[in-house]
Design a protein that fits this description.
EC number: 6.1.1.11
InterPro entries: aa-tRNA-synt_IIb, aa-tRNA-synth_II, aa-tRNA-synth_II/BPL/LPL, Ser-tRNA-ligase_type_1, Ser-tRNA-synth_1_N, SerRS_1_N_sf, SerRS_core, tRNA-bd_arm
CATH architecture of the largest domain: 2-Layer Sandwich
Helix content: 40-55%
Enzyme class: ligase
CATH topology of the largest domain: BirA Bifunctional Protein, domain 2
Number of strands: 18
Oligomer: single chain
Number of helices: 14
Largest sheet: 8 strands, mixed
Strand content: 15-25%
Radius of gyration: 27 Å
Family: Belongs to the class-II aminoacyl-tRNA synthetase family. Type-1 seryl-tRNA synthetase subfamily.
Main location: cytoplasm
Strand order of the largest sheet: 1-11-12-13-16-10-9-4
CATH class of the largest domain: Alpha Beta
């Protein structure tokens, strides 16, 4: 959530930033008018409280002198009634302003390229060379089906479209990837700039709606979520939601920052706006596994920390030998809560394109203001809002898809990346059923 004081003091810059994000219909002037009315009511409320205090002193004096104070007491009663009425108005007005602020996206960082859509995203780094095949590479859904490790038909019977069943080597590969990624991130404290370790956490997959508001999914994207209204719970779209909210309503010590978490979780998304997109395969599913990295850090270091967090995600792809690139998203393609985002895109041979496998974002104090996450500066003074960041480290289903496509052989088998073999009993290759006999 944006600080209303920032909107008041720099209205034109905020308007331009929202235009750069293609947000042309946010009624900033109406919000500012409501905030000014709220400020005016606060002044009246403060004035009445001062008057009540003066009346209380005068009443006390008269009583001590044995004088009649009935008229002052009646005036005090009327002032108290007016204060109560204004407090009700203030509560409604504050809630109204907050509801409007919750619908305003974050303001892009100055380093974010300006552009209307994904075509204006900028590539900043590329790693690995896409393999040249001597045969026509198959898409991962065909490879997985022929290997007998992916079953979309049975998943459709169980749950409908955009679900999958992994069996045998497919399930083992998924488990191996989660273990490998978690082990990689847990070891990063030995070699990273921040010097702080990741704390591994296991979190609930169901959260209260307030947690979704804290990280920016609600109220804007409520229709994208799987809701359980009878229990007032929501299935998480990403571990970012419960992990970030672990420090909700907290004041941390500056010496504890950055706080770094890593979690693996099942994620659930309705994909309501994705009709007709990626209808086959593992790229866009209602349910999927993901390893998530979450940082809570100091404002002064957050952009250096974003580079480190993104590097942690990149290390997974590099060790697996998957060609990828890093792009910085332009203003028109930024997520709602993000001030700056790097996407990591992995090469998919069957499509001849790079596809997103990780998104690493700095939210600055946008989430912290919603969730009331602060820290106490070393030098003292008032607590300050932290900056929060997160990134996929990385999406497991999309990694399976990338492994199947990049390491496929003409005979239908798939080479297991070397780092995963220890997690799969030394297995070096996924082979079709007829070759296992």
């Amino acid at each position: 959530m944006i600080d209303i004081r920032r909107i008041l003091s720099d209205t034109e810059a905020i308007k331009k930033a929202l235009m750069d994000r293609n947000q042309k219909n946010i009624p900033l002037e109406a919000i500012l008018n409501d905030e000014r009315a709220l400020s005016s009511h606060r002044k009246i409320w403060e004035s009445l409280r001062e008057k009540r205090n003066r009346l209380a002193e005068d009443i006390g004096k008269k009583k001590r002198l044995g004088e009649d104070s009935s008229s002052l007491m009646e005036e005090s009663r009327l002032v108290n009634a007016e204060i109560s009425r204004i407090e009700l108005d203030l509560s409604k007005m504050e809630a109204g302003v907050r509801e409007q602020l919750l619908l305003i996206p974050n303001i892009p960082h100055a380093s974010v390229p300006v552009g209307p859509d994904e075509h204006s995203n900028k590539e900043v780094h590329r790693s690995g060379v896409p393999r040249t095949f001597s045969f026509e590479p198959l898409p991962h859904w065909d490879i997985g089906t022929r290997l007998g490790i992916l079953d979309f038909d049975r998943a459709a019977v169980l749950s409908g479209s955009r679900f999958s069943v992994l069996t045998g080597d497919g399930a083992r590969l998924e488990r191996a990837l989660v273990a490998f990624m978690m082990d990689e991130h847990a070891g990063f404290q030995k070699k990273r700039r921040s010097g702080k370790p990741y704390t591994e956490v296991s979190i609930p997959f169901l959260v209260r709606p307030e947690m979704m508001e804290g990280t920016g999914q609600f109220p804007k994207f409520r229709e994208e979520s799987f809701l359980i209204p009878d229990d007032n719970l929501v299935l998480i779209p990403t571990a970012e939601v419960p992990v970030t909210n672990l420090n909700r309503d907290s004041i941390l010590d500056e010496s504890d920052l950055p706080v770094k978490y890593v979690a693996s979780s099942t994620c659930f998304r309705r994909e309501a706006g994705a009709a007709g997109k990626d209808t086959r395969g593992l790229i866009r599913q209602h349910q999927f596994l993901k390893v998530e990295l979450v940082w809570i850090t100091r404002p002064e270091s957050s952009y250096d920390d974003l580079e480190e967090l993104t590097g942690d995600a990149e290390t997974v792809l590099e060790k697996l030998g998957l060609p990828y690139r890093r792009i910085v998203l332009c203003t028109g393609d930024l997520g709602f809560s993000s001030a700056k985002t790097y996407d990591l895109e992995v090469w998919m041979p069957s499509q001849g394109v790079y596809r997103e496998i990780s998104s690493c974002s700095n939210f600055e104090d946008f989430q912290a203001r919603r969730a009331a996450i602060r820290y106490r500066p070393k030098e003292g003074g008032k607590p300050r809002l932290v900056h929060t960041m997160n990134g996929s480290g990385v999406a497991v289903g999309r990694t399976i898809a990338a492994i199947l496509e990049n390491f496929q052989d003409e005979d239908g088998s798939v080479i297991v990346p070397e780092p995963l073999r220890a997690y799969m009993g030394g297995q070096e290759r996924l082979s079709p059923p007829e070759r296992k006999r």
